[in-house]
Amino acid sequence: MSKALVLMSGGLDSTTVATYAKSRGDEIFGLSFNYGQRHVIEMESSRRVAERLGVERKVINIDMRQIGSSSLTSESEVDEGSVNREGIPNTYVPGRNIIFLSIAGALADIKGASKIYIGVNSVDYSGYPDCRPDFIGSMQNTLRLGLANGPSSNLSIIAPLQKLSKAEIVRMGTELGAPYELTYSCYRGGTKSCGHCDSCLLRLKGFMEAGIEDPLQYIEYPDFYLDFLKRKKK
Amino acid sequence: MSKALVLMSGGLDSTTVATYAKSRGDEIFGLSFNYGQRHVIEMESSRRVAERLGVERKVINIDMRQIGSSSLTSESEVDEGSVNREGIPNTYVPGRNIIFLSIAGALADIKGASKIYIGVNSVDYSGYPDCRPDFIGSMQNTLRLGLANGPSSNLSIIAPLQKLSKAEIVRMGTELGAPYELTYSCYRGGTKSCGHCDSCLLRLKGFMEAGIEDPLQYIEYPDFYLDFLKRKKK
Question: Are A98 and B94 within 8 A, CB to CB?
Answer without folding.
Answer: no
